[in-house]
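Batch manifest, entry 17 of 40.
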Amino acid sequence: MYRIDSANNVAVIPVPAAVAVQGYFQDTDPAGGTDVDADFLNMMQEELIYALLQRGGTPDKADYNQLWDEVLLAEQAVKSHATNTGNVSTDVSRAVIGSTWSRSNGETSAVMASDQCQSGTQKSAVVASAAATATGTGVEQFIAASNTSTISGTAKTNILMLGSTHSSAATETRAGVISSRGGTASGDKSTVLASYTCGASGAQSAVIASENGCTASGDNSSILASSDACAATGDEAAVIASFDECTAAGDQSVVMASYKGGGAIAANGDASAVIASYAGTNTVAASTGCAAIASTGSTAGANGVVASFVAGTSGCAATGNTSAVIGSLGATASGNRSVVIGSGACTNAVADSVAGGTGAAITWRIVSTSGAATFVDLNLTGLGNHANDAAAEVALVPVNGVYRNGSVLMIRVV
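Output type: structure tokens
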């Protein structure tokens, strides 16, 4: 396509003649042929040239296909109908629609209402986005309402990037980053949802409503409503509503509603849990099959110990198998199947026993063997000495209360 360049052309289009009555061409018979003037030929020429120029083309005298190649061919990516297109196929399968400085180069791909975007993989689309790219060798990728985000790599299929910014999906199949900033879904079938600078790298892992460097790297692991570098590194592990580098490292472990402070929060063992706890400057940790609940600076299990727990404690440790420390400060249950309740910094090393005390001393202990229970180390200092129930009543000992008559232990019954 080229403007006329033969002899007697002019460099500037002439001013059209005055408008006359519009009509149609006719042959010479019977009334004489219709005159074809310069106005009509210039109009036809400029309509064609203008369409080419608007498509970014350059008139080429040796190219007889420019109208199709650079103007009409683009329309072959769209087919429309007033009511129903039916099942149709477009003649071309790459389209950029209502966008600026964007590219569609993947087979069956499109960029729509976007700026500086690329849809470079098979069956991919970028919609209402800016500086977003779907590239690599995968198929079925979709980016929408996102900014400065990418889907990249090899063999990436069924990938979704929605409402996100500065995010990336570089995974195998069925992964997505949704409503996030700085999110990365790099695990197979992984998801980052409504999060900030977080990553899901484990297979079937997820980070949801979290921020500041939280990561789910274990397979089937998850981070939910947590912040500041919390991590689920074990398979099927979870960190929920926790803050400041809490870690669920064991398989099937969980950290919930906890805060590290200056120490460490860790569910290190398989099937372990740390719940509603605070480390302070110390450590709250749980080994295999153990739990730390509502505690600070306490440890449940160690060195192969299983099924122990601490609850409502500070600076305590349950280090015996199936041991427990409850409501205590600085206490230790080191015997197998031992329990310390409501005590200070004492140690119960006796197996099959429940004990308590103040300071470092055990003041009472119940030992159970062969189904029987025996009180040992029972300290009755301060127990009232009364001659009978009447005297005990005067001393405000309640009915069913305990007092002594010399060396005889008494129970007030009246």
